[in-house]
Amino acid sequence: MAIGYRGAMGDASLPCSTDRLELDALRRDLWPRQTLAMARGELPPAPAEVVWPRDAGEVRAALDRAQATGRAVVPYGAGSGVCGAASGREGALVIDLKRMNRVLELDAEARTVRVQPGLLGQHLEDWLARRGLMCGHSPSSIACSTVGGYAAARSAGQFSSRYGVFDDMLLAANLEAPSGTVRAGAWTPRGQEDLLPVLCGSEGALGVFSELLIRVVPLPERRWLRGYAFPNLVSAWTAMRGLLQAGLWPSVIRLYDPLDTRLNRSTRPPGPAATGRSLLSRMHALARRTPGLGAHLTDLPLAMPGLLNAVFGTLGSEVALILGFEGPEALVAAQVELAAPILEAARDLGPGPGERWFQHRHSVSYKLAPVFLGGGFADTMEVAATWSRLEGLHDAVRAAIGRHGLVMAHFSHAYPEGCSIYFSFAGKGELATYDALWQDALQAAAEAGGTVTHHHGVGPLKARAAAAEAGAAVRVWREIKGQVDPDGRMNPGRLFPDDQPEAPGPPPPDPDLGPVFAVDETSLLAEVDPAAPPSQVEAALRSRGLALRLRPDRALGPWLVAQRREALDSWECPVFAVQARFQDGASARIGPAPRSAAGPDLRRALLRRARAELVQVPVRRVDPDRPALLVQADPAAGDPRELRPAWRTPDQWAFEPDQRAIVEALGLSLTPASSRRAHGPRRSPTAPRERE
Amino acid sequence: MSPPAAADLGPCVYCPRLCRNVCPVAVGTGRESASPTAMATQVWLYLEGRTELKLALAAAALCVECGACEAICEVQQPLAHLLGDFRRALSPTGPQPLAQVEGEGALVAVEVDERRWAEALAARLGKPVARLRTEDHLGHDATGQPAWPAHLARLKAALRGRTAVVSEHRSLAVLTAAGVEAAHLLDQLGWSGAGVVHQPCAGPRLPGAPPALALACCGSRAALPSAHPDLAVQLAEDCGRRLYDERPSPEGPICSPDSTCARALREAGWTVEDPLSALLGGAEPPAPP
B228 and B155 in one domain? Predict the structure, then answer.
C-alpha cells in the first residue's frame, strides 16, 4: 500500500497523503459524542487529504495548497480534544503537526524553552527532566496531547494553582495564518498589538502554531502531599478559599464531592481494593470473562440516573481534599506551617491519599472505555465561577446533568478569586440523550453565572454557548479573524458560529456608584471605573478595607492595555471581567472569573476596540495594624515567580502579613519600616479583618 | 490460528490514546494512522464488518510488536499481540524452509542477510564455525502459525549438539523458543558499545549499557519494512536522531548490539557500530564505556 509518499500533490518536498488509511485515522478526536456515534455505527466524516509539515515553511506551503485547492484547513495535534475542534471535516486539508516535534532551544538562564507544536507534553517533560527542569503543565492527557494543542485549547494541568494554566506559561508564539506569520507575545514586533491572548484558545480557527516559547521551572526540591477530610463541600470550599487568599500557592488543591470521595475511598485507609485501578481491572476482567456482563454492568445503573444520584446523595456528605506544596524545601515548610490553622476544621488523613493520587494522576482516562463498551457514554464538563457563585453553579449544573446521567464532581483548579468544577458523568442512551444532557448543563452553567468551559476548550460542543457568553465581543474575534484569515479557511464555524445572533449586552454601570461600582468580598474582586485615576479607586477601596492587588501607574483601562503579556505571571492576573461598549451602542461583558477559558481571551482586544465601562480587578484585604511586609526586590534571593509576593514593583516586593513565614524562610530582608510594624499577632487568614 | 474478536480490541478503540507516547511508530512517523488506537480501530472496524481487509492489514502491519503499549497499559490490553495475531491469521506466511547447516564446528553462525561472517568468527576465535543462512530470521514472523511447532522441532534437530551464534535478536528469540543453545555475537567478541546505545525492542542488552532510550525503534521489525518501507526508513531516521541527540559525548557513536537494527539505522544515514560490523571490519572492539 502506498502511503507516506511525497510530491504526489504537486509540492516536491511536502509529505502528504490521500490514502484512506491515513484519512480514516483523522475522522475523530476525543469528543465523546463521536465515540458514542462510532459505537452506534456512524463514522465522522473523513478529510480529503493530510500533510505532515516539518517546519514553519512547510506549514506555509500547506496553507498555500489549501488556498489553491479551496479547501478548509483543520490543524491536528494528537487529537486529544474532547469538544470536537479537530474532528473530521469532509473535504478538508488536515495539517498534522506531529512531525514538528523538536525541542529547538533551551535557555536555562532565562528559563525558557522553544519548541515545535507537535511535541507531546510527556516528551517535553521527559526532555526537561533530564536537564533538571520542568514545564509544570500536567493535564491528565499529558501522554496523548501536544504542546501546540495546549495553546490552541488554553489547557490547564493538575498543578495549575502553582504553575498556572498553559496560557500563563506561554511567553511567545509564531502562528502561520493564511495572511502571513503572526508573531505574538514576547515576539510581537514593536508597535504592533500583541495577539497572543487571542491566538491562545483559537482552536485552529486563526492559523497553525509553528513555534512556541514556554516558561520552565526547576524540578521541585521537595514535594509534599496530604489528604484531609471535611464534613461537607461548603466547609472544604471555605478552607480552599482561605488557603489561596492567604497568599499560599499549593501545587495541588483538589477536592472531591461525596460520591467521588467514596468511589476513590479517599478518606479511608488504603487497602487492596483502594485504588481505582485494581477495582477497575477486576471489573474489566470479570466483564471480559462473562459474555454479556460487560453491557449489564453499566446498562442497569445508567438506565436510572435519577434514582442512582438520589441514592448516592444519602450516603453522607464527607469530602476529601488532596493538598500539595512543592518547590524549595524551606518554602514548602513555610507554606505547610501557614496552611495548618486554615485546615483546623479538617480531619488529617496523612500523606496516603495524596501519594496515591499522585501515583495514579494520569489514570483516570482508562475508566472511560468500559462505559462505552457497556453501551453507555461517559464525558466530563468543566465550568468555573467566583467563590461567591460557586455553590449555586455546582448545584445547578449537577441537577441538570443528574436528570440524564450519573454525576459526580471534583474541584481541581482553584484561584484566589474562584474555582473550577469538573463534572464527570455517565449516561445510558442514544445521541439524543447525550445532546439533551449537554444542552441542559450548558444552560444551567450560564444561568448560574459561571463560564461554560474552563480548560477543555470550545469546539462544536460548546460553540453556541461560548458565543452567547462572549456576546458582542465576538465582533472583536471576527475582526481579528478577518485580518489573518480573510477567506475563513481555518477550521471554519467551530469556535463561534457565524449564524448566531448577538446576545444583548449589559446596561452601563451607574456612574453615581463609581469609581468602585461593586465589590465581591468573598472572591476579592472589585468592579471599577477603568477611566478613574488609581488614587481615587484606591481611596474608595480603602474605605472598605481593601486595596488594589496590582499597582497601576495610570487609569486601569489604559494600564491594562499597555501591560506586556510576559511581564506578569499567573498569580498576578490583572483583570477578570471587562465590560465595554461599541460605537453602535452594543455592549459586551466578558470574562466571568475565574480565568475564563471559553475560547480565546478577548478581554484586552476588547479594551482596545471599544469604550471600556467597567473592569473587574483583583483586590486584597488591608489592615492598618498589620501592613504588608515590604522587602527590597532582590532577584539574587529568589525568583519572584517562585516567591509570589502579594504585589511587586521593579524595586520592591510586598508580602501579606500572613506570609511572614515565607519571607523568613527565604531570608529576605524587610525594609526597616516594615520590620517595625509587622510584628502583630498572627491569626487565621480566614478570620474577619478589621477595617483600616 | 484465529484472528482476535472485535470485542478484544474494544478497550483500545475507546481509549483516549494513552499509549501513543511510548509507541515508536506513532512518534517516529508522526502519522495519526500509526497511533496504537488508530491501528486498533481500523482492525476493529474490519472485524465489525465496516471496512476492508486490506486497510485492516495495512494498519496491523504498522505495529512493530515491540510491546511498549502493553507495558504501559493500565488495563493490561495485549494490543501488540492482538495486532500481530490478526495479521498472521489473515495474511498467513509460514516460515521459510530451513537451510542446511554448512560446515563443521560446535558453533553455528546464523547469517540473516548477505553478509557472510562464519569464517571471520572462526578466525577470531581460532576454531571452526559452521553457518546457517536464513532470510526470515529463522521464521520469526511466523510465530504461532500452525506450522510453527514443527518448524521449531526441525530447527532443534538441525542444530542438535551445537551452539548457534546470532548477530541479532529475532533469530535469538526463535532459537530460544526451540530450546536450542544460543549465544549472541557480542558475548563471543566481548564487544561493548562505547556511545549511546540503541537497545532493540527485545533482545540482549550490552553489558554495562546505560538505560535504553524510549522510542528508539529502528523500524526493521515485524511487517513494517515490507508493508510500509517508506515509514520504516522514517522511523530509523527518527530513532537515529533521538539517539544522536542524547549521545553522552559529541564523539560517541551510536552503538547497537543488533546487526539488523544497525543496518536500518545506517541506511537512514546514521553512523552506527555493532558487533557484526566490528567483526567484519577487522577492527578491535571499542573499549567499554
Answer: no
A interface test, pick of B13, B21, B235 with most A CB neighbours within 10 Å: B21
Which tens digits make up the pLDDT trace of B20-36? 999 999 999 999 999 99
Instruction: Supply the DSSP string of B167-197, one letter for each residue.
Output: SSHHHHHHHHHHT--EEEHHHHHT----SEE
Contacts of residue A284, Cβ cutoff 8 Å, sequence gap at least 6: A370, B11, B75
* pLDDT tens figures, A458-497: 999 999 999 999 999 999 999 999 999 999 999 998 899 9
Last residue of a domain, one of B188, B222, B247: B188
Residues A157 and A80 in one domain: no
Q: How many domains does chain B have?
A: 3
Residue A273, min C-alpha distance to chain B (Å): 15
Shortest Cα distance from A187 to chain B (angstroms)? 27
ipTM over 0.95: no
DSSP one-letter string for A403-462? TTEEEEEEE--EETTEEEEEEEEEEES-HHHHHHHHHHHHHHHHHTT-BS-SSS--HHHH
pLDDT at A422 over 80: yes
Pairing of strands A319-327, A252-256: antiparallel
Indicate whether A118 and A197 sit together in one domain. yes
Q: Are A448 and A442 in contact (CB under 8 A)?
A: no
Which pLDDT value is given to residue A662? 85
Nearest residue of chain B to residue A20 (CA atoms): B55
Tens digits of per-residue pLDDT, A430-466? Answer: 899 999 999 999 999 999 999 999 999 999 999 999 9
Question: Do A585 and A645 belong to one domain?
Answer: no
Sorted by sequence, the CB contacts under 8 Å of residue A299 that are 6+ apart come out as A374, A375, A376, A428
When pLDDT is cut at 50, 70 and 90, the band that residue A683 belongs to is very low
Please name the residue that has the C-alpha cell 456612574.
A511
- Tens digits of residue pLDDT in A192-242: 999 999 999 999 999 999 999 999 999 999 999 999 999 999 999 999 999
Q: Which residues of A493-507 are buried (b: 16+ CB within 10 A; e: fewer)?
A: ebbbeeeeeebebee
Between CA A170 and CA A151 the distance in angstroms is 8
- Chain B residues whose CB is inside 8 A of the A370 CB are 11
Question: Which whole number is the average pLDDT over A494-515?
Answer: 91
Using 50 as the pLDDT threshold, list the residues of chain B that sit under it.
206, 208, 210, 284-289
Rounded CA separation B40/A19 (Å) = 18
> Which of B9, B12, B13, B18 to mutate against chain A (most A CBs within 10 Å)?
B18
Handedness of CA A423, A426, A428, A430 (dihedral sign): positive
Strands A73-76 and A103-107: unpaired
CB of B256 less than 8 A from some CB of A: no
Q: According to the model, what pLDDT value does residue A478 have? A: 96
Range of the domain at B61: 6-90
CA A112 from chain centre, in angstroms, equals: 21
User: What b/e string do you get for A42-67 counting C-beta neighbours within 10 Å, with b at 16 or more?
Assistant: ebbebbbbbbbbbebebbbbbbebbe
- The one-character DSSP state at A143 is G
Interface contact B21-A99, CB threshold 8 A = no
For residue A575, name the pLDDT band (cuts at 50, 70, 90).
confident
* Interface contact A123-B27, CB threshold 8 A: yes
Report whether A143 contacts B18 (CB < 8 A).
yes
**Do residues A120 and A206 share a domain?**
yes
A526 and A580 assigned to the same domain: yes
- Could you say which residues from 79 to 118 on chain A have a Cβ atom under 8 Å away from some Cβ of chain B? 79-80, 96, 98-99, 101, 118
Q: Is the confidence at residue A665, as pLDDT, over 90?
A: no
